[in-house]
Amino acid sequence: MLRPPLRLPQPFRRAASTAGPGRRLLLSTPIFYANGPPHIGHVYSALLADALHRHRGLRGAGPSRLSTGTDEHGLKIQQAAAAAGTSPPELCARISALFHQAFTQAAVSFTDFIRTSEPRHCQAVCHFWNALQERGALYKGTYEGWYCTAEEGFLPESQLTERVDAQGCTHKVSVESGHEVHWTKEENYMFKLSAFQDLLQKWLRDNPRAICPEPFYQRVLCWLGEDLPDLSISRERSRLQWGIPVPSDSTQTIYVWVDALVNYLSVLGYPETHGEWWPAAHHVVGKDILKFHAVYWPALLMAAGLSLPERIFVHSHWTVRGQKMSKSLGNVIDPFACNERYTVDGFRYFLLRQGVPERDCDYYDEKVVKVVNSELADALGGLLNRSTAPGINPSNTYPCFSETCFPKVVDYRETEALGRAAAEDYEFVVSVASLPLRVASYFEDFQIYKALECIALCVRQTNGFFQRHRPWKLDRKDPSEKLWLDTIIHVTLECLRVYGTLLQPVIPHTADRLLSRLAVEPEERLISNLTFLPRYNGKPCPFEGRQLGPDTGILFHRLEKSSQHQIENKRL
């Protein structure tokens, strides 16, 4: 069949910097497939986006939105509903409500929750399809190949292997997922993906930060160096009824991935009001859907005459005791049970502290307990408790800093001690002073775990400082001893204020309790206004002499060890 001429877009401009003050930004999670309840991998995606969203707000970087939701069309859902003895709309309504509940309980600060079954989304998809058609990006042709229902896509022979089942029968399966594939032949609408290969390569060469972290950027470049066949983007309606019909062709249903990807536009009011936000968008996605977001989605946008999203942040998966999560193994982890077991902040901290985007990370109960107890309950909570204890700080105030005890020096490595502070005290103060910029840099590069690693190290250094000088041994009645005692407490509380401020995107409830205990007002909690130890630099400290907030008890209670090895998802 003859293909209509394709109008290619103009060359693309480099994406604008994300650092400019006052600019708008859409942060998005993937929309999650509504064929089963949420597990910790889904929550991890949402928490990564949430932490970026919260951090941006605390920096005062400008208006931002965080979108998430559920992907509710496709053959997989049609089959899951039939197996459950219900209708696709009823199944999707139930599963979507679970995702909404899971993200709400996990304190994900989403501003938009989109369901692809909503009229606003269906209208946006139809308009997007028409734009593709009008610009000559589509043609109708016969397509045949190995189709994977579980992954809602055709797979090339190079991505398949053979597997023998328990009955001795041989099946073709996906190399990456292990899902079975079936040979399918049908007449579909085709998207001329091959026409965009050069443009996609140019886009990535001109925007080396478009896909982060670097290994995933390189993976996409490798894909674009291979053959890029045209893409089937519809299914016969007789095979797939649960989906959006192709406009002006009731025999075809729009391919679920085209439908799903348009959600990033429909949440912004496409086609009427999306221009107020788009293309200032950062997508957070799992590595398993990287090709859809870094190859198909940009090509579709080019074909529709739209600009490309600024950045795509990619993360890896969670295993359970070294094994991939699966229903058959019974090791799918229930996020609701995790929040109950570890608290919301405890589980948020674990996932963001231990999750490394470049590689798969492993979950097991003992690991969560160890990390959370060590870094939140003992190190952070213990430091707050010790520095505000009545025996150490009987006036319950933010005490004064003494420049005599802790004088400013140009180079602590080459200066003999002038006051009571030692060289290692200066080293630790320098480390804490640089912390906000280091944390911001790691957030910008999608390395949230490294930001938390830096904070945890500084917390340990502060505990070392406190322990080294033993303020409980100092005599408050001795004027010189009191000056040094108050200075030790002042420095410690300043450190805690910095940590509480920087931890707000990750453990919002615990950070709020910490900052409230230090009497830090809501308007004083912005990262953009964060200063550390101004008295050391000869500037006034607004907290000095201030009465501390009420004692709310232990900041974070230690988790008990459990004999239970995992928290299985009972909602399957």
A few lines on this structure:
Residues 26-387 form the Methionyl/Leucyl tRNA synthetase domain. The protein has 572 residues and is of the alpha/beta class. Helix content is 40%, strand content 15%.
Give the count of helical stretches.
17
Total domains = 2
Q: What coarse outline follows from CA principal-axis ratios?
A: elongated
CATH class of the largest domain: Alpha Beta
Largest sheet: 7 strands, parallel
CATH superfamily of the largest domain: HUPs
What integer is the average pLDDT? 91
Please report the total strand number as a whole number: 19
Q: Distance between the terminal alpha carbons, to the nearest Å?
A: 46 Å
Beta fraction: 15-25%
Structural class: alpha/beta
The percent of residues in helical segments reads: 25-40%
Give the second-level CATH assignment, the architecture of the largest domain.
Answer: 3-Layer(aba) Sandwich
The radius of gyration is: 27 Å
Tell me the CATH topology of the largest domain: Rossmann fold
* Low-pLDDT sequence parts: 10-19
Kindly describe this structure.
The chain has helices spanning 40-58, 75-83, 88-105, 119-134, 197-206, 214-224, 256-261, 263-266, 290-303, 335-342, 344-354, 365-388, 423-433, 435-444, 448-469, 479-502, 508-517, and strands spanning 25-28, 32-33, 64-71, 112-115, 138-148, 153-155, 160-164, 170-174, 182-191, 211-212, 231-232, 234-236, 245-246, 249-254, 281-286, 311-315, 318-320, 323-324, 361-363. The two termini are 46 Å apart. It is elongated. It is built from 17 helices and 19 strands. It folds into 2 domains: 25-315, Rossmann fold (3-Layer(aba) Sandwich); 378-547, Isoleucyl-tRNA Synthetase, Domain 1, CATH 1.10.730. Strands 1, 2, 3, 4, 10, 15 and 16 form a 7-stranded parallel beta sheet that branches. The chain has a 4-stranded antiparallel beta sheet with strand order 6-5-9-11, with no helix packed on it. The longest helix is centred in the middle third of the chain and has 24 residues, at 365-388. The model is unreliable at 10-19 (pLDDT under 50). It is 40% helix and 15% strand. By secondary structure, it is α/β, with parallel strands linked by helices. Belongs to the class-I aminoacyl-tRNA synthetase family. This is Methionine--tRNA ligase, mitochondrial. Keywords: Aminoacyl-tRNA synthetase, ATP-binding, Ligase, Mitochondrion, Nucleotide-binding, Protein biosynthesis, Transit peptide.
